[in-house]
Amino acid sequence: MSRHATRGTTARTRVRPSTIWFTHGRIHDRFSGCAKTLAETLDDIVRGRITVDDLPPISVVTHDVDAVESDGSASEDRGRRGRGRRERRGDRAKTERRLYSMNNRRLWVMREAERLGVCEDVGVRMLSREQCEVLLRKGSRNFRVDRCTPGPVKIVPTREEPPERRAEGENDA
Predict the structure, then answer these.
(1) What is the DSSP letter of 134?
(2) Whole-angstrom Cα distance, residue 29 to residue 11?
(3) Is 53 within a domain?
(4) How far apart are CA 65 and CA 81, in angstroms?
(5) What global pTM score does this model have?
(6) Is 19 exposed, middle or buried (0-12, 13-18, 19+ CB in 10 A)?
(7) Total domains in the fold of the chain
(8) Residue 59 within a domain
(9) Per residue of the chain (173 residues), what is the pLDDT tens digit?
């Protein structure tokens, strides 16, 4: 298979939701498209009406970042903070691979399901290396490493009511 044949393809795997980072610190309380709330979806999962596998897989971006030492020092200070360590010739900075969600609302539901013991792992779509590099280089509105958070996130109410609720409210007046 040629290198070009694999460009843009995605790999699917399963991971624990708690290992995936949010790409924003705030999310809306409703899914776009179906107008269902995150809480309603979580309730459906907890009651067994649906499973986390009924939700589409989360698309994730992978990125290597400097690992933080257990004493709170980052690798760029070579462990001089805290207990420190001797500088060794050829000492390389430690990195860890992080997963960042491109679907924060789905991730929130899946993390809560994991916290409640309803699921252990979820399906994810790993974006290709080329797709990740484009997102990282572009610094897009959807993905910037400096805005990512391991959680928790703040849930904000959606400004506009779903069309079916607006129609009901008009008849009540």
Answers:
(1) H
(2) 29
(3) yes
(4) 19
(5) 0.68
(6) middle
(7) 1
(8) yes
(9) 333 334 455 789 999 999 999 988 889 899 988 889 999 999 999 999 999 999 999 999 887 777 764 444 454 444 445 444 544 555 566 888 889 888 999 999 999 999 999 999 999 999 877 776 776 666 555 567 777 778 778 888 877 655 555 455 444 43
Q: In this structure, is residue 127 part of a structural domain?
A: yes
User: What is the C-alpha to C-alpha distance for residues 151 and 155, in angstroms, rounded to an integer?
Assistant: 11
Q: Residue 110 is part of which domain span?
A: 8-65+103-157
Cα gap 109→167, rounded to integer Å: 28
11-15: strand order across its sheet? 11-15, 122-126, 58-66, 95-101, 20-21
Task: Report d(CA 145, CA 101) in Å as an integer.
Answer: 11
Strand partners, 48: none
